[in-house]
Amino acid sequence: MFRIPATGGVTTASETGDRSQFRSAASRISQFHPARPAIVDLFNLYLGINGRGKADESVREPPNKTQKRVTALNIDIPPPDAQFIPDFEQLRNQFLDHEQLYTVVESVLVSLVIQCSNHGPRSKFVLFAICSLYSIGCITWDSFIPYLLSSVTSAETSVNIFSTTSPQSDTSAASAGGPNYSNIQSPNLESSMVLANDQSSTVISSLRKLSCQIIISAMESNLKPSTYADIFKHALSWLINWNPCQQGSDEVDGMKLYKRDWALSEWLHKCLSVVRMLVEDNKCRVPFYELLRSGLHFMENLPDDISLFTLIFEVHRRRDMMALHMQMLDQHLHCPTFGNQRLLTHVAVNTISESNTQLRYSPITYPSVLGEPLHGEDIAFSIQRGSLDWERAIRCLRHALKNTPSPDWWRRVLMEAPCNRPNPQGSTPGAVFSSDMFCEATIERVVELLKLTNSDVNCWQDWLIFSDVFFFLVKSGCMDFVDFVDKLVLCLSEKDHQVLRTNHVTWLFTQIIRVELLVGALTTDSRKVEIVRKLLSFHKEARSPDSNNPQSILLDFICSCQTLRIWALNSSVREYLNSEQLIKGKQIDEWWRQVRKGEYMMDYMNLDDKSIGMFWVVSYTMSQPACEMVMSWLTCDGYTELPEPNPQANQTITVRREVNPVPISLLSGFSINLCLKLAFEMEDSMFSGVHAPNIAMVETYTRLLLIQPHSLFRSLLSHLHQKNPEIFNKPGPIILVLEILNYRLFPLYRYHGKKKTLMYDVTKILSTLKGKRGEHRAFRLAENLCMNLILSFREFFFVRKDTKGPTEFTETLNRITVMTLAIIIKTRGISDAGHLLYLQAMLEQILANSTHTWSHKTLFYFPPVLRDALIGKTDKRPLAIQAWKQAEATVIHQCRQLLSPPDDPTYVMTYISHSFPQHRLYLCAGAWVLMRGHPEDINTGNLGRVLKEFSPEEVTSNIYTMVDIILYNIQQELQQHPYSMQDVISNTCENLAQFIWIHELLPLDILLLALTDRDDDPYALRIVANLLERKELQQRISFYIANQGNPDHWLQTGVFKRVDLQKALGAHLSWNQKYPTYFDDIAARLLPVIPLIVYRLIENNATEAADRILQLYSSFLRYYPLHFTFVHDILAYFYGHLPAKLIFRILNVLDVKKIPFSKTFQERINSPDATFPPPEYFTSLLLNLVNNVIPPLHNSKGEGQNSNFNLATNQSGSTNAFEPQKAFYQTQDPGTYTQLILETAVIEILSLPITTKQIISAFVQIIVKAVKGQPNRVSMRSSDSCSESNSSSVGCGSNPLTTGFDRKNFVLVIQACGLLLAQLPVEFHIKLYEEVSCVIKDNELQSVVGYSLSDPTLAAQDHTSTALGNVVALIHAFFWNLPQQWLDNTHLLIHQLRPVSSVSMLRIVFRIIGPLLPILANAHGLFIKTLELLLSMMVDVFGKNAKPSTPVEASDITDLIDFLHHVVHYEGQGGPVQPNSKPRPGVLALCGKAIESMRSDIQPLLSHLKPDTSAVFAATNPRLSRNPS
Fold first, then answer.
1. How many CB atoms lie within 10 A of CB 1449?
2. Strand positions, DSSP E, 288-340
């Protein structure tokens, strides 16, 4: 049956030992070694085989005793076993090379094991011989066992091939001493195959049994770890891959239990014994963890064996225990809230290439059996409907449909429906939602809106927002439309028949009826008739004619609109259409005919409700005529020529006369198809038309994009370039595009996640223009747009994708970039800690060409990681002053010629042509020196002409150089002359005002930024404050506010006033320009600058000056698109350093009526001296988050849009009355309504006049007190002690902290609290860890109860909630919302819990910190720090010198041991553990040091987490096994 391997088997990589290094070469020559015949003869003698190589007689049981007696007479009786060793030693002495002899012996023994395993007496002798030869040193287990196992594997393979290919035995097998099957009679092929399989199974069982007996004998000695690993691998392979085909089976509850035969029972028990010996705790030859990741517990065909069942049950139990430490409490509740931008926190995504559309990330993660996050399309499609993961996905999608996250989020998490994919393709990586999930969530949203509509709630705004998202997602192919219609019909038929009472569903489908996928379904799909009939089934009778509001009229005619469109698409379905609706369509035509009759033009500013409604109807049936009508409104007054104030401008520009922009109330009802047409028509008119557009058209265009942010968005620069590559060769279009982007649309790019792409596009424009002479207007506008984009970032970003070479930013933008990085890192953290690795390279990019450094006062407020990177930079300003002194004489000489009072314009070009570039950089500085405080002494006309002819880059350098010289001269004057500082600064500001306002020589925003960047000079900020407080600027700001009107520009209905070009921009920027301005203005350029100045004033302790500036500019800053972000960030950046008066002034930047502040807080704003808020205030904050930010657990049943809790009123001022959903244009900053609610709560907390500890204590007490029992009123702690008791038996009752919620939904309050605290600065985190540690210490004894650390969701159902469980769930919710960088402080919580002297506290620590380790798998530094902390805690309890409060056996913490093994492998793999996962050497070294300090009974359980080759993991890791040191 077996063939003896000619080469002695296959050598495995794990073989070690003195002889293993030349095993392969030795095995090749062993067949020809002169000792081999003698050795074979010796073994044949003792095995009773007559002659080497001769076939033995049949070993089958003879048919009768006579034949047995005759057979016995023909066989030589073997010598006694005791004689074997003396005979072998005699043979050994005949050969000098014992090493080669031992190799031959091992080869022969392996062959005999294979040959004799199925022969009882002979197998016993082989086992005896092997053990005896080991006892005299002829066999080395560490070389023999791997050799044996590899040969057995080869032999089993040959048997399996034989049994499946040939029904007859190979006669050559008998010659090897195996059973002779040639005498077996096979009546047919099938019976022969069955018999062969049966016999092969028996032979394999015998071979495995003998192999296990040999291994058991070997393990009585100390083997090398690599040998143990090899044994473990083969033993598990035998168990997992055993062949059940020939075993009888019984089926119990769907599980097949295979009956044992005797051979199976024997080898199975021996194999299980081997496995038990390998993993037994006292020896721990192989860690039990290897069983947990082996796949043994996933066996599909289980033999009916109680010992195997026991082992598998133990594996399942320990896996479950280990998985517990991988999962956060209430992990299934963790979903995106869309209240913050930290959607990538725990998923590694390459953020450098934002434009890569294939990038996907997980909005939620599905935990595997070990609690590991799983991602991928296959995972999403495998989730069963109705499961917890399914409900979690629907919860997330439902919340997204209500709160409209950006289209970028939808693109990343949704896949095209399978029916919409043009070509079959593999699954896309990244966690996604399946189309079925999306379909179900969308239907739920439709039903919810129908119920709200039926309750006479005005939710038209909600329908409009939903239709925009619905159009975008259907067009993207994320939904199987036919399947969606089927399910919607079924759902509405199953629901109450009164749910569908209106035509809103018909209107929704009419919005998307021109989408390509829907057109295909109605024209080419095989089920098109059925689809049409189902669409028509949604038609409902119109409401009473009394309803004449525009929405009612639209819904009255929408069935006719849809019917007409279906008929136009497919006339073959005419018989299924309602003829009344077709007739009704004539009413639309007749109304439109009357409107277009004669010269009549609709007065779109004074339309009554009926006309508005009918025009909306026309937008669905005749979109092209409606588009022409709207365009005629905006161009009806013709055009006019612009005056020519600039003789340099040699072209005449005509511009459309101003009219009223189309009101947003009228635009909102247009069909999406009309909006698309209008957008394209307006783009052609604005950027390619003969006449420059009026402000009304530009404003209407931006309103269209704002009211339909999903369906109409396009990247304007690339979109226009694709339409016409020559469009930007003209100065007008590029200026208009930049104005639209800078003053109207850049918040939309932030919402879409496209600000990086836009910034890179604008940077290309900057790099093109900065060296061009005279291109000041477009360059400064692009630079201002870049300022706004940089300041709008909320996450770590890369200046250049390749992170190499200097940036293409200007000096001004480089400074703002560093400041933005500081704000991001300090106020929002870095979501991926790995990005910190790029920080140094990024700073080198930014500062490559910079001559400026950062003052110590500024660095003091920088986050430490950024401060450490910048603090060593040398200040190059002294070099700049030195260079000026060297060039001063030449520069002054040139300036005298250029700036002498007689006006000689011809000398301007002479100067530009003949002066050196390095001297031109000092032109403004030279002019300043020549002035001597009297601007009239120089020819400012020539100075202005030269500066206009300079390139923008040269002007910037002149400004920064002039600032250095001005500050240097001030110092010299004060040192050399008895002038007062106030007089010198006043004179300086007077002269600068002449430069800026009288002669308009320089851009004010760049001058202010240059002075602000010199904050290390004692006079720079004084000059800045003086300039900002001057009446010239105040008048300019007042003019801008009066001209602009309402900061919410989309609400303006009046005619926009166009400001003269030179008056708007000044002589420097407008000198050679003719193209009119739209929204640009010198004042508007200051909007991103003033916040930076306020930052710098506060850094330099000039809070009084900051207060004055904010008082002057509060109303003006409301025009800043990022004014809400500014308030949030400055309060967080300087938290703990702002006086109450300044906080009050900062809050006044916001329009309180438009911000959802709580009532209590609004009272505080009106009264800055308000005291500590009542305890109910903190509860109301959390309830407001639960109602508006946290995804609800189930669909709302009441009228509210998101009624997790049904409150009559609360302290936040919200009620259970329905509030319409906020459109994007109403929440441009911060972006979504959920963000607005969350960040408003953050602003409130940061503004409270109480300590951080009081705030944290209030929130923690809410979580602690809200459990079963009677409540106790909470008093604020005033000390740092933990003496106050945190009883676990207090609850919701009448506690003012917990009034308003029940136990069932209290889990969402915990999630809301964790989310809110994670948005606060690090100072709050430190106090949170202190407060939580006190609660844990007070409730440590609870941990002995099994339910004390269970999910609060489950605990609430069985009324077993505990303070300990709630507070750990709070910490986990907090962790989940933290950026990775801020997880670095979690060690503070553990340090607060020390000293740890009990296993109960150790388990609490593991339960808290354990789930962080998988999250940190890709952040090696944080992982090492956290793992080291856990190991040190284990040493505290199980160290050699530790004295735990209660003695604990090592076996009681096997789950912690398994968990440590798992996370070490998880980090080594960088994700879910694979069979070939290896720990990192550095991690093993860390573990090894800790293990040395532990008790002797603990060390064996962790012994393989060491870096030396005495451990399995190190011995099987090639990098460590080759370099043991």
1. 11
2. 302-303
Whole-angstrom distance, CA of residue 1051 vs CA of residue 1047: 9
Q: Specify the amino acid at residue 1420.
A: H
Look over the chain and give the mean of its residue pLDDT values, rounded to a whole number. 83
CA dist 1307 and 1296 (Å) reads 18
| Percent of the chain surpassing pLDDT 70 | 83
- Can you point out the beta strands (E) in 270-318? 302-303
- Assess contact for 8 and 27: CB atoms under 8 A: yes
With a CB cutoff of 8 Å and minimum separation 6, the contacts of 53 are 175
> Contact, 999 vs 1007, CB < 8 A?
no
Q: Is 1400 helix (H, G, I), strand (E, B) or coil?
A: helix
Contact 19, 99 (CB under 8 A): yes
1321's tokens? 């600065």
Q: pLDDT tens digits for 225-239? A: 999 999 999 999 888
Residues 6+ apart with CB under 8 A from 854: 818, 862, 870, 873
For the entire predicted model, the pTM comes to 0.89
Cis, bond preceding 1230 (omega within 30 deg of 0): yes
DSSP character at residue 638: -
Strand order in the sheet with 255-258: 249-252, 255-258, 302-303
Helix, coil or strand: residue 373: strand
Asked if the model's pLDDT at residue 16 lies above 60, the reply is no
Angstrom distance (rounded) from CA 244 to CA 250: 12
- Residue 937's alpha-carbon distances to 930, 940, 961, 1020, in angstroms, are 8, 9, 21, 25
Return the residue matching tokens 């960040």: 1239
Average pLDDT over residues 2-25: 38
Range scoring the smallest mean pLDDT among 110-119, 1131-1140, 1510-1519: 1510-1519
User: Which residue has 């004179």 as its token pair?
Assistant: 987
Start-to-end CA distance of the chain, whole Å, equals 47
Task: List the structure tokens of 515.
Answer: 């989408």
CB 1448 within 8 A of CB 1429: no
E strand intervals along 1013-1056: none
| Residue 1443 burial (C-beta neighbours within 10 Å; 0-12, 13-18, 19+) | exposed
**Percentages of the chain per state (helix, strand, coil), in multiples of 5:** 60, 0, 35
561 close to 510: Cβ distance less than 8 angstroms:
yes
The token pair at 1285 is 């008791």
Three-class SS string for 676-731?
A: HHHHHHHHHHHHHCCCECCHHHHHHHHHHHHHCCCCCCCCHHHHHHHHCCCHHHCH
Three-state secondary-structure class, residue 1082: coil
C-beta neighbour count of 1251 within 10 angstroms:
14
Per the CB < 8 A criterion, the answer to whether 1 and 213 are in contact is no
Q: Is 1292's pLDDT higher than 70?
A: no
Alpha-carbon span 1109 to 766, nearest angstrom: 31
Cα atoms in the Cβ-side hemisphere of radius 13 Å centred on 558:
31
**What are the residues whose beta carbons fall under 8 Å from the beta carbon of 199, sequence distance 6 or more?**
1, 163, 179, 181
CA pair distance 606, 621, nearest whole angstrom: 23
Enclosing H/E stretch for 466: helix 460-475
**For residues 1192 and 399, is the Cβ–Cβ distance under 8 A?**
yes
d(CA 47, CA 628): 105
CA–CA separation, 335 and 864 (whole Å) = 31
Ramachandran angles phi, psi of 1135, nearest 5°: -60, 130
- The secondary structure of residue 178, as a DSSP letter, is S
Beta bridge partners of 639: 656
**Contact yes or no for 258/247 (Cβ under 8 A):** yes
Residues 271 and 735: their CA atoms lie apart, in Å, by 80
**pLDDT on residue 1430:** 93
Alpha carbon separation from 34 to 37, 40, 92, 113, 133 (Å, rounded): 7, 11, 12, 22, 20
Q: DSSP per residue over 852-865, as a string?
A: ----HHHHHHS-HH
